[in-house]
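pls ignore typos typing on phone
zinc ion + seq
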Amino acid sequence: MKVVSDPFCNLCGVTQVQDVLHFFLDCAFTTDVLKEHIEEEMAKTYDHYNEQAVMEYLGEGLKDLKRLTRLLEMHGQVKTDKSAAVKEKEKKQKDAKLKIYREGMAQIFEKRKSGIKDWETMRCVGDVLSMNPDVYTLWNIRKEILLHMVEEKTIDEPVKVGEDELRLTEICLKINPKSYGAWHHRCWIIEHFPELDLKRELILCNKYLKLDARNFHCWDYRRFITSRLGLSPEEELSYTMQKIEEDFSNYSSWHYRISEDGGKWTTVNSIKESPLWVSDLNSNSSSEYNIKVAILNEVENVCLKADNDFVWFRKPQFDPEVSPKLKALLVEQLETCNQLLELEPESKWPLLTSVVFMKAIDTTQFREEIIRRLRCLMKYDKYRSSYYSDILSKFLIEEEFKSNELPTGSFSLKNLGLTSFYYTQYFARFELIDLSHNKLKRTLTKLEFAVNCTTLILDDNDLTSLQNIPFLPQVISLSVADNRLKTADEILNCIDKLPSLQKINVARNPFVEDDAGKQDFVKKLKTLKPTLEIIVD
Amino acid sequence: MANLVKDVVISQDTPKDLLLDKHIDYLLKYGTDTNDFEFCMTEYLRMSGMYWMLTTLATAKKLHLISKDQFTEFIDQCFDKETGGYSACPGHDPHILYTLSAVQIACILDSVDRLPIDDIVRYIAGLQLPDGSFTGDKWGEIDTRFSFCAVATLSLLNRLSSINVKKAVEFVLSCQNFDGGFGSKPKSESHAGLIYCCVGFLSVTGELGRIDADHLGWWLCERQLPSGGLNGRPEKLPDVCYSWWVIASLTMLGRQHWISKDQLRRYIFASQDCETGGFSDRPGDLPDPFHTLFGVAALSLLGESNLIPINPTFCMPQDVLSRLGVESQVLTK
Ligand SMILES: [Zn+2]
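k done
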């Protein structure tokens, strides 16, 4: 098998027998060489289909089937140059096939119209489906006829009928392993023919998954069968573990294992963002309000007090709870990552995994190392550098909130290299928010929670636009000096969203580079807001 | 053969910019030969094929090149009075997939008022099960794709309240996995196409706040391979259609910048056929209308200047949705 292994494995790593066959055909071997290699390969991987089926598959018109498979799937059809003679021959074959298809379809629709529900129609439908398994209406017609026969009690041997149906879906799945219609028909047959042997189905799934462990239709089908069989989760787990051992990188199996494992998985590094709720209070009323807060299914009684500005927050919990046992395990795993990094300091997965571990073990202890490794990732995994910088921003903001114990009054996140906002719902309390000397360049929409902010400082960022600044009713002073705002309109168009504004600083932006720009801007802004204090340099 | 990175190598001589005129020629020519083998054998998805073609033309500002009547007449022929659904082509059975395509076509051609809206709503609402999920037709296949089709269709018709949205949301959320992604039903493996459907579903229903966008966003940005193309699952080859599903999902989640846009653009450009026009799944493969739409749509999302902006949720031109007053949620970052 030297011929196959290299190019094939590197290309897509699939050992599905169809692909192996196609590969041989692509290589245009002579018939004898082809047959010898195929027999050898069949013996290795293709044991659950009988030889006759394989030879049928190899028979006349295989090239067309292959073309059709890829067309129906609309993937992976390689463009090749063909001679005029080859094209002509292919055209003839296709015309012949098309004729059969069309006549078959016409005949079936005619019978359906006349209400004929017999075995002859079933045969006809089966023939067309084995040419083109994605004609969903044909699967429907089969089901209609079968239901009719069950109702009329004309099915004498349900096991045979059911098995024939399963066989038909197998033929179709050979043409297109992802045919939704064929997979669903298989489930439908299992549901409607309880006499069928489910254990046999399980064995078939296992064999098929040996050929292509990533076919999620087959995993779904296997799940369908095991749930009908009532298999215990332990039995299922042992099967999945076996598949993982066979192919360590098999993501489908990993997925299956985690789903079956009682569903108690936790993510180490995720916290859902909670929204902010604001309400107007009656001005003349009491110094206390009792409210009920429902978060998911937990209801909490909360007292809003005047000396706390009538503000209540659910205490942010940024660090996950990790049991001592798990922590010990994580420390061990972190050590392994670190050893790998000593050998290859630039390798992505140990860097990324170790960051997750360090966050779970102790963010305070590892703070600097977490920051350093995330910055390394920004450098080494360039395509995703914005992901790492956003995640770093998130981490740094968490750290600020932790060390500050949710301050009131003013809050500073300056000079942290932030590219993104997180937890802005906690901004609701602050009157002065300083976000200067960062790398903010995207939308400012998330500042919408800063409902009590009177002074907003955004100096020295990478802002190119203020179009998306949210409605900030209390802001009196806004500073956006040292950014990349190119036109006066960026300010003029957003001024309505800042109804309380009294002072604005736009110094050192491109649009106020020269005196003309400055004068023009001041003039226009003064027409909109005559009393505004404007700083342009 | 564990842990192989599967990817393609983009050669130097592949196209470096958008060959828009060629693609238009390709689409207008496609299907003119009604005896073409491939064309006939794909009749079971004709309605979606028409939507692919029309959306591409509309995004390229070339809708005036086709006759509107030809399409609206086709839709009429595919309507099934009894159920209220649409089939892929005349004579075939109604299905939710083609009902969405038919409604999308009518929206793009500004002929929603011709649609039998009450019948369509009855059809869609009738496919919802007590657990909130949707079947594709009366034969009972359940899939999160159909949940998306249901809410997208109803939202385009401004009739979202005709189903139990709360239950529908619960079902879709029950299909979320440990990796943040979504599958076709509970416990099914995460897959970019189904993630698009589920994120799109939550965008239509305004429930994107229910998911951890950072977690899912990370899984999605990990789909970008060294060639710049995106795959649909770990360890799979890159593909233009998955590139759309991933980039559209990231856009809805407000995290489009988590991948390299330039590299993705390069991959999509390389998947054009410079001879016939059209896009294929990967450089060097044969083009088809399906990948042509998703290539053009992804380029539009990436800000290509010759194209009009496309809506990431509906995969339809934004101006069509604005005209209809249809809104969809997008998270901000
Ligand atoms: Zn594709």
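The beta strands of chain A are 288-295, 298-305, 409-412, 430-434, 455-457, 477-479, 503-505, 533-535. Chain A touches chain B through 68 residues (CB under 8 Å). more later
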